[in-house]
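User: tokens in, sequence out, please.
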């Protein structure tokens, strides 16, 4: 009976939302209110969170196993009715797509919707869950006194363009139905904790997709409108715009669009692990895979997830984002029954690393959505809400790694116990990748290596390198925008310990100009 009522509510919503299931090209689309029943609003909120959880679990086994290559059809995906519960227990770190979102939802509930950026930053930095890339670099920055927005800026965070905020901005869009600019404000406040430039745009774009998924079931319209929040001169905008064009050119073959993306847009500049590697965790590239999934998935839940996954690279995060957006658009009641036993078995469990369940998250997001609707010109009625639609506004232009061009990688894999690290290079920037290693196989220790950094003979800073994985420094050292020329970097381990060593994996070097292409005939 409950399913029947919910289904009737979804059908009714098509009449409450003024023409939301028709093509939207009229200029007056935003100059009005839309009405959605409260039951439909709850159903769409549940669909968004459920879609993320199903999507990340679905793509989990393939994460970064396919880099620069698609996953072929003969490789089947795993799914069964207990899969989410089992994965919660066996691989909790997989769910960073969602537990970061939930951290921010908790802060909004505890401190209110006007909570300052520092409150989100401090909360996420002190959680005991696993983080990587821009998130981990930001955590280290915050714990060592570099607060947002500096914590996410590319000069302080070599992973500023990475996918991190893109996969954790869902909360902002889900709680702001039809209110794109309101969601953007949350993204500005929170997204610069860990990202900048294209990395920040990933979250802004994702949240906009969610807000617009409440207003229309025309996927082309939702994507094109969401893209309006991104500056047209940005690399992020150009990549998504290309996918839209290629979809029109190859409407029946997602692989052709995927291949065009690979040919034109896979060059990495920021993340030092990906610059000279097939590995690419950039928000912009992985966002193209999300959009490929949404466009070619044709609002089919499985097809959308499957295509977003088979594009490769961050192939758990991308189907999570795509399925979350589609989940809002169609509502939980319209997610096929095949996926629901695994999800519903886990809805009352505490989410990995969180003291909150999905069912509790649905309620909090609904509460926050009602508050935002009321604050932004809407009305809360007995059985429905009236939402004042917001015309998407373009955010400011940001670009990471300006004046920086990768010129060399040295893959060294050296361990240091007694000697200092000595590096000579020619360029204007350097990233030294590595970590503190235990010589005794110790799992946990509060040991912190102190590294004195000398650049061209002058001590510039002392770096703290915790052995503890949760609060680790993601890269040993980085410095951008040095004067172009020859430089010498010396890393002196000030408090050597016989039980630990300093492992230097590799070095990436930058210059102020792109390197001249090798030409044996010249």
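Assistant: Sequence out:
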């Amino acid at each position: 009976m409950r399913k029947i009522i919910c289904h009737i509510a979804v059908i009714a919503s098509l009449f409450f939302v003024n023409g939301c299931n028709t093509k939207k090209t009229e200029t007056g689309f935003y100059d009005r209110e839309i009405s959605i029943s409260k039951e439909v609003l709850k159903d769409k909120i549940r669909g968004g969170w459920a879609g993320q959880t199903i999507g990340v679990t679905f793509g989990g086994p393939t994460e970064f196993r396919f880099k620069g290559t698609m996953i072929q059809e003969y490789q089947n995906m795993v799914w069964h009715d207990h899969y989410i519960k089992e994965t919660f227990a066996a691989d909790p770190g997989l769910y960073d797509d969602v537990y970061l979102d939930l951290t921010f939802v908790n802060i909004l509930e505890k401190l209110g919707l006007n909570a300052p950026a520092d409150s989100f930053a401090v909360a996420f930095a002190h959680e005991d869950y696993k983080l990587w890339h821009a998130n981990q670099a930001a955590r280290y920055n915050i714990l060592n006194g570099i607060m947002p927005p500096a914590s996410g800026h590319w000069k302080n965070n070599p992973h500023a363009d990475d996918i991190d905020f893109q996969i954790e901005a869902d909360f902002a869009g889900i709680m702001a139905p039809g209110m794109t600019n309101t969601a953007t404000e949350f993204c500005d406040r929170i997204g610069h904790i860990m990202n900048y430039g294209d990395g920040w745009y990933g979250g802004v774009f994702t949240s906009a997709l969610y807000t617009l998924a409440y207003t229309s079931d025309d996927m082309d319209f939702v994507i094109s409108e969401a893209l309006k929040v991104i500056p047209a001169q940005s690399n992020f905008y150009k990549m998504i715009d290309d996918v839209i064009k290629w979809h029109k050119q190859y409407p029946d073959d997602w692989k052709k669009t995927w291949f065009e993306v690979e040919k034109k847009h896979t060059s990495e500049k920021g993340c030092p692990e990906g610059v000279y590697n097939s590995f690419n965790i950039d928000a912009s590239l992985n966002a193209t895979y999300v959009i490929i999934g949404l466009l070619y998935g044709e609002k089919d839940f499985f097809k959308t997830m499957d295509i977003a996954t088979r594009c490769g690279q961050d192939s758990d995060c991308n189907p999570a984002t795509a399925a979350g957006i589609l989940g809002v658009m169609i509502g939980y009641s319209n997610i096929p029954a095949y996926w629901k036993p695994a999800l519903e078995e886990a809805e009352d469990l505490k989410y990995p690393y969180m003291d909150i369940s999905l069912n509790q998250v649905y309620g909090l997001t609904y509460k926050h959505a009602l508050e935002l609707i009321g604050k932004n010109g809407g009305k809360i009625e007995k059985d429905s809400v009236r939402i004042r639609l917001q015309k998407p506004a373009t955010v400011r232009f940001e670009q990471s790694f300006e004046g920086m061009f990768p010129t060399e990688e040295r893959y060294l894999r050296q361990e240091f116990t007694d000697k200092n690290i000595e590096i000579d290079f020619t360029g204007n920037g350097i990233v030294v990748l590595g970590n503190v290693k235990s010589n005794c196989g110790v799992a946990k220790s509060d040991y912190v290596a102190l590294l004195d950094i000398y650049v061209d003979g002058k001590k510039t800073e002392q770096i703290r390198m915790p052995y503890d994985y949760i609060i680790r420094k993601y890269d040993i050292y980085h410095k951008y925008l040095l004067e172009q020329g020859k430089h010498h970097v010396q890393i002196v381990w000030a408090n050597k310990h016989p039980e630990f060593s300093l492992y230097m994996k590799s070095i990436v070097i930058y210059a102020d100009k792109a390197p001249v292409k090798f030409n044996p005939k010249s």
